[in-house]
Specification:
With 56 residues, the protein is mainly alpha-helical. The protein has 1 helix and no strands. The protein has one domain. The longest helix is centred in the middle third of the chain and has 38 residues, at 15-52. The mean pLDDT is 84.
Length: 56
Amino acid sequence: MFLACATCKADPNSLMAKAQDLAVLVMLGFLVLGMLCVGLIVRSFIKRQQRFNTPA
């Protein structure tokens, strides 16, 4: 419907086309979730580094 090219997509109203659209959205969701986890881990490392580098 909105995420696949015309070459690999048949009738937009078919069940297969709707399943392909949903599969692309699910994969994008997992990608965003993975990138968010990596970002949170990096943020945690930065905060921990700042906490241990404070002058005493």
